[in-house]
Amino acid sequence: MTSEKTLADAGIGRLGLCSGCSYFPDYLNSRRCKPGDACIRAHSGRQIDRFLRANPELAANYLGDIFWERRAIATRYAPVDLIFALKSDTDEVVRRVVAMRLPVDQLISMIHDPDREVRLSVAARLPEAQLIQLINDPDYLIRATIARRLPHGQLAKLIKDSEREVRKVVASRLPPFALHMLAKDPEPEVRAIVAERALPGLAIALLQDEEWWVRLAAVGNAPLDSLPPLTNDPETEVRDAALARLAERNTA
């Protein structure tokens, strides 16, 4: 009775990338790699990933590889304590992986990384007490991420941010008693968010806003006795909203 041939005996892998590979033929025969599908020597991210997913214990061997994609994929699978040095890798894709895997107490040294995606990952994971250090980041997406995570008591530091999208986030998170700080924002989209969340006193003031959708948002929070003038508003939607709220009082 003859034994079944191994894949290598059958001629698979004798040519191409398998030739000269230190894992050939053992890994091929044990199906821990597959030519054209799972191969550490390939210049294909998918093949490299499949190989290291099946053999994560080998990832550390490729953290210093000359090919950036091989380093980046190895960084996903290597033990965390081995990737610290890659915080300053020359390739931003490698650093992005590092920023997603490092312990949060090790992220502070990456807040000035030149790559926006790296800083976004840092901003999303940085301990709350350290978020303030990114408050002046040149990229508004970073500042908006910070605005979503800052403690309420520190949000006022962003009310004068130059970017509307950042101030919109601030308006959506400020405690209602502090919304007056954005009630005169130059952007109506910001004022509309303020109006949607305003306490009654501030809502009354916003009923006079020059933009109709800000007035519309304020109708929902303003006291009923302040709404009759809005039944003559030049905008139909504002008039209808005011009339609907007044009708609720009459049917209560």
Automatic annotation (TrEMBL):
Residues 18-60 form the LRV FeS4 cluster domain. Transmembrane segments: none annotated. Signal peptide: none annotated. InterPro entries: ARM-like (IPR011989), ARM-type_fold (IPR016024), LRV_FeS (IPR008665). This is Leucine rich repeat variant:LRV FeS4 cluster. It comes from Dechloromonas aromatica (strain RCB).
